[in-house]
Amino acid sequence: MSHFLQFLIVLLLIFFMLEAPIQAQGKSNLVSAIFIFGDSTADPGNNNYMKTPFKSNFLPYGKDFLNHVPTGRFTNGMLANDFIARYVGVKEYVPPYLDQSLSIEELKTGVSFASAGSGFDPLTPTISNVLSLSKQLEHFKEYQEKMEAAIGKEKTQNLINEALFLVSAGTNDFVVNYNTLPIRRKNYTLSAYTDFLLQHVQLFLQELLDQGARKIGMVGLPPMGCLPIVITLHSDNAFSKRDCIDFYSSIARDYNSKLQNKLNVMQIGFAKLGSRIAYMDIYGPLMDMILGYKYGFEKANYGCCGTGLMEAAFLCNPNSYVCPNASKYVFWDSIHPTEITYYLISQAFQPKIDSITK
Q1: Among the options 40, 275, 334, 346, which is catalytic?
Q2: In terms of pLDDT, which residue wins out, 39 or 22?
Q3: Backbone region of residue 152 per phi and psi (left: phi > 0; alpha: psi in -120 to 50; beta: other values)
């Protein structure tokens, strides 16, 4: 056998090994579809269809996505939800609901209703003119009507009952809203504002359950003090002192602790419906990457795009410098993770995904 033929066989084996997990999981029918709600960590391009500065449908965003297309995802490639959709075997990428070109078959396996810049506080999405969580729920109800017209009410209800729901929001409520604008600080202490947000989280999850959701993953807050933009704005010296700002990370820790308690209470209350609600920890995995420098990351306190200090959305644009190898960076811009970070986060989520889908 020639060396070339041996090389070709090895390549084919690697290809089928990579493809096999997706196909096998698809056959196992863990879930019927995937539905996403939240902010820029979950928005694959809904903001493309809105009048808002919070967009990323231009290079260098998407430079490592399929065909180097900037889809509106706030990263260089795929989001965690895309990897999760593959893991549960429903689709390769989760599309934005507002894309009017989606077929019924594409809609049937799930979409994202998320909108970059959104949050649980109703004030947060008004700051940047994006979709509120309540509007995202309206779109979900509209989605159900479309599906009922196409496949019938009973099949639609079964689809919803067997689907995986993921919710990722909250960072903008603190970083963009409470700690930047004076409006909420006039009426709420930090602790009271956290409780205010969690009331809205509960109302949102209650509505999802009322609409038939039975498998829900709720993502906590990341270590907000480690976001490059937060370090830049709050460090004593943004250029030479780029340690995480623990005050902001402590807010996330407190929120996450209270969120877990609330989700546990809701799980007990709704268990009789067959519902499974899981807390998904993003704080721990990100801290491992940022402080532990695990997985070979070389830069954790700068973004890959531009200076890495302040750039996001239109400030990270076709004229921006881009680092040679984004996989060496935890963050793509000054707020959002790189594709490799999202991949590792999705891996960390898998045990919880299993717990609510199997």
Answers
A1: 40
A2: 39
A3: left
